Amino acid sequence: MSSQSEAPVLRATKLVREFYGFRAVNNLDIEIMEGHIHALIGPNGAGKTTVFNLLTKTIPPTSGNIFLRGRDITRMPAADVARQGLVRSFQISAIFPSLTVLENVVVALQRPAGLATQLWRSRRALNPLYGRAEELIDSVGLSAWATRQAGELPYGRKRALEIATTLALSPDVLLLDEPMAGMGREDIDDMVELIRKVAKGKTVVMVEHNLGVVSRLCDRVTVLARGETLAEGTYADVSADPRVREAYMGNGHA
């Protein structure tokens, strides 16, 4: 698990989100501690995706506040929040199927290098980015695939490439939306190890349906039901909570 501290890096207070009169998130308080891998789980319809979208600034709250390292980011645009180090994987990262794995990561690196709108630049001008791109590709186990077109990658490798392009933005808080979705057992095992590796020195928040993965990876778990916190603690704590057992047995796994 990740290197931990007792300081919250991401915090929300009295978070509310309504959709046409329906309250999907109801006065939610949540703290994500620095260096933790923190999972959001819950039965279907519990509000996990809405909470995740609120924390990642995909949608604004109806009321309440969100703080990143003590700074109120409630009304801050998602792009500005990303520059503060909070980055959502599989949304900001874009994979171009006709480009190679290496070229995809170089494109991702152009934004923090101030070259995001300068795609016309020559290879020589972009050379300084290639060394870092190769490091990122190696960090996610894709060195052997560097010259392959991204569209040719197996599904699990594409997800690894998405993480590499996200890491290009140098996040210190990484938010993963169902990183195991659509994966077979072998790919899941590889992704678990990859997340464990990239989480070193970072904080990770993830929505994940696979409770086996949550039990293996996460320091802390928040269980949601009807847009509110049903239980919170270690996986052992929440899995033993009779309210959690009832919620899952009544509605199926999240």
Structural features, described:
This protein has 254 residues and is α/β, with parallel strands linked by helices. The chain folds into 2 domains: 1-92 and 173-185 and 201-254, P-loop containing nucleotide triphosphate hydrolases (Rossmann fold, 3-Layer(aba) Sandwich), CATH 3.40.50; 94-168, no CATH class. It is built from 9 helices and 10 strands. It has helices at 48-55, 78-83, 101-110, 123-139, 155-167, 185-198, 211-217, 235-239, 242-251, and strands at 8-19, 22-33, 37-41, 63-68, 71-72, 86-88, 173-177, 203-207, 220-225, 228-233. The strands form 2 sheets. Strands 6-7-8-3-9-10 form a 6-stranded mixed β-sheet, sandwiched between helices. Strands 2-1-4-5 form a 4-stranded antiparallel β-sheet, with helices on one face. A hairpin with a 2-residue loop joins strand 9 (220-225) and strand 10 (228-233). Helix 5 (155-167) runs parallel beside helix 6 (185-198). The longest helix has 17 residues, at 123-139. The protein is globular, with a radius of gyration of 19 Å. The two termini are 23 Å apart. The model has no long low-confidence stretch (mean pLDDT 88).
